[in-house]
Amino acid sequence: MSHDAEFLTVHRDGGIAVVTLDNPPVNALSAGVRKALWDAVDRLDADRDIRAVVLICAGRTFIAGADVREFGQPPVPPHLPDLVDHIEAAAKPWIAAIHGSALGGGFEIAMGCRFRVALSSARVGLPEVNLGIVPGASGTVRTPRLGGAAAAVELATSGRPWSAGKAQKAGLIDTVLEDDLLAGAVAFARAALDRPLPPPTSQREVGPMDDGFWDEARKTAARQGHQAPLRALDCIRFATEAPFAEAMAYERETFLELRASDEAAALRHVFFAERAAPRPAWLEGVTALPMRKVGVIGGGTMGAGIAAACRMAGLPVVLIERDGEALARGVANIDQTFAGAVSRGKLTDAARADLLAGVTGSTDYAALADCDLVIEAVFEEIGVKREVFAKLGQVCREDAVLATNTSYLDPRAIVAGMPHGRRFIGLHFFSPAHVMKLLEIVPTPETSDEVLATAFALARTLGKIPVRAGICEGFIGNRIFKRYRAEAEALLRQGVALADVDAAMRGFGFRMGPFEAQDLSGLDIAFLQREGARAAGQVIPDTLSDILVRAGRKGQKTGGGWYDYPAESRRPQVSRATAELLAPHVAAPQAMTVEAIAAHLVGAMADEGRDILADGIAASAADIDLVEIHGYGFPRWKGGPMFFAGIR
Ligand code: 3HC
Ligand code: NAI
C-alpha cells in the first residue's frame, strides 16, 4: 500500500480537492504521513481540474503535532520544515480545516497553508516547550509573521494553546465556523479563489519589538525553570530580526540540539507515563462500576477539596459532617474553592451557584443511600474511621464503593472484621484536592477488580493522574517524602546550613526546599504521627523537627518553624532561635555545594523508590516518578527521581 492510501483519502468537490488525513489516534506527523502529504501536494499540483485543496482530518482532532515516538530516532525525510515549505509553495492554495487541536507540527502545517478555517471549539498552539524542545518546523518563524511577535511569544513560551476565537483576533485563523467544518471550508475555498491570494506566511513582514518587550518576555519564560521556553524566545526574537531562511536555520539548529537534551528525554518520559497511567494494561477488560453520585464524609481540608473536585467534574455530592456547625463550615469550605475560581476568572458567579447547588449537606448518613461511591475524609484516627465505615455498611447500597482518604493508617485495619472487603479501597488525594493531580489508589488484598477499575475511572473523570500503591507506611509518596525529610535533617546534623539545603532543592527545580515546605504545611502533622507511634510503644528517636515543635515552632502558622516569619510574612528568614535549639545536635559548619546537596537528596529519593519497587508497593518506576511530580513538586523536566537516577 502506498503511504497515500494508508493515511490519506482525496475526493473532489468541483475544482476543490478535499484531502482527509487519517492517522489515529491524533493524526501525528509520522514519516509515512509526511511522505503522503508531500506526494499529495505534487499530485494535486499536477491535476489541472483542481484549483484549491482543503486539508481536513478524520477522528477527534486535526494534526496534534510531530510524532513524539520518533523523537528518540534519527530524523527520516521528508523533514517537517521542508514539508511545510512544500505545502506553502504549492501551485494550488491549501486551506487547513481545523477541529480539535492543531498543535506543534500540526499548527506549523496549518501556517504553511494559504488559509486556516477552524471550528469555534478548536484550539491551536505550540506546546513543544512541554516536551523540552522548541517548535522545529517554522513555529517560531511563521507565527510572528502571521500573528505578530507577542502572539508567537505567548504561544511558544507558555506552551498553552489558544481558542480559535483568540487566534482569529491575532490573525492566525482566517474564519471561525460553528459547525459543518468541511462544507464551510470548501465554501471558503471557492470564495477565496475569486479574490487575489494573500502572500504566503513566509513572505509576510514582521514588525520589530523594543527591548522592554523582550526583557519582560524573558522574565516570564524564565519562571518555568527550564531552558526550552527561553530558547523558544531566542528563536522568535531572531525570527523578527533576520530574514526567513536564516531564522529557519537557527530554529532548526536549536530544535535538533534540544531534541537530544536530557530535559527533552525527561519530558517525553513524563508525557508517555502520564498517558499510560489512567489506563493500566493490567486492568484491561475489567469494567468499572457506574459513577453517578458521590458521598464525602468530613468537610475539612481534604473532604471539602474532594467534594469540590467531584462537583467540578459534574458529579453530584452528598457531604456528611458531625453536626450542624461542622456541616455549615464544610459547605463554606467547598464554596470557598469555587469562590477562588471566580476571583481568578475561571468560573462565573452563576456557575459557582450551580456547583454549590449540587452539594447536599447532611448530618444524617441515610442521605448516602443512593451514592455509588463514598469517600471518607474524617480525622486520622482509626477508631473514628472504623465507626464511620460501620455506619456506611448500614446505610449504603450493597454495591456502593467505599473509600478512605487515610494518609498513614493501614486500610486493612480500618475495615477489619467488617463485610466491606471487596468494595473497599484507599483513595489518597493530595492537598488541595481540587488542584493536585495525583491520586494514589490503594487496594487491599480483598478489593475486587471492578472496584479497582472504578477508582481509575474516577481519576479519569476528575482529570487526576492515578497511581496504584501497595500498603505500607506512607504508601509511595509519603514514604519517599519521609526519607527525603530524614536525609535533609541528616545533612543539617552534619553541619550543612539549612538555607543551603533549601536553596539547593530550589536550584534543582522544586518550588520550595524541604524545610520551607514543612514550614508551609506545618511541622506538627508528622510530629503527631510520630508521637502516636511512640505512644503505641515504637521507639522513634527525636527528629530535629520534633525539637522545634516541642518548643512551639510549628511552621508559618505559629510565626516560625525552621525559619522565622515575622509579622505573618511568608518570606522565610534564617532563625537564631532555631539555630540555638538545634545547636547541641549539629556538627561544626560544613560547606557542601548545592549540586552535591541536590544529588544526595534526589539520590535518597531514588533509593527509597528502589526499595518501594522491590517491595511491590509501586508497579513501575514511571509510577513513582508521576507520584513525585504530581504530588510533591518534583520538576517534571528532570523526569522524576527514578528517571533521573537512570532507573526504568
Ligand atoms: N505523537 C505521538 N503520539 C501522540 C501525540 C504525538 N504528538 N500526541 C498524543 N499522542 C498519543 C498519546 O500518547 C495517546 O496514546 P495512547 O492512546 O496509546 O496512550 C493518544 O495519542 C491520545 O492522547 P491523549 O490521551 O493525550 O488524548 P486527548 O484526546 O486527551 O488529547 C491532544 C489530544 C490534545 C492532541 C493531546 O494528545 C496532546 O496535547 N498531544 C501532544 C501534542 C504535542 O505536544 N504536539 C507537539 C509535538 S512536538 C512537534 O510537533 C514538533 C514540531 O514543532 C516539529
Ligand atoms: P480536617 O481536620 O481538616 O477535617 C476532618 C473533618 O472530618 C472535620 O471537618 C470533622 O468535623 C469531620 N469529621 C470528624 N469525624 C466525623 C464523623 N464521624 N462524621 C463526619 N465528619 C466527621 O482533616 P483533613 O486534613 O481534611 O484530613 C482528613 C483525612 O484526610 C485524614 O485521614 C488525613 O490523614 C487525610 N489526608 C490529609 C491530607 C492533608 O494534607 N491534610 C492529605 C491527604 C490525606
Automatic annotation (TrEMBL):
Residues 293-469 form the 3-hydroxyacyl-CoA dehydrogenase NAD binding domain. InterPro entries: 3-OHacyl-CoA_DH_NAD-bd, 3HC_DH_C, Enoyl-CoA_hydra/iso, HMG_CoA_Rdtase_CS. Pfam families: 3HCDH, 3HCDH_N, ECH_1. Pathway: Lipid metabolism; fatty acid beta-oxidation. The keyword Membrane does not apply. It comes from the Bacteria. The keyword Cytoplasm does not apply. It is found in: Peroxisome. Residues 474-565 form the 3-hydroxyacyl-CoA dehydrogenase C-terminal domain. Keywords: Fatty acid metabolism, Isomerase, Lipid degradation, Lipid metabolism, Lyase, Multifunctional enzyme, Oxidoreductase, Peroxisome. PANTHER family: 3-HYDROXYACYL-COA DEHYROGENASE (PTHR23309), PEROXISOMAL BIFUNCTIONAL ENZYME (PTHR23309:SF49). Monomer. This is Enoyl-CoA hydratase/isomerase family protein.
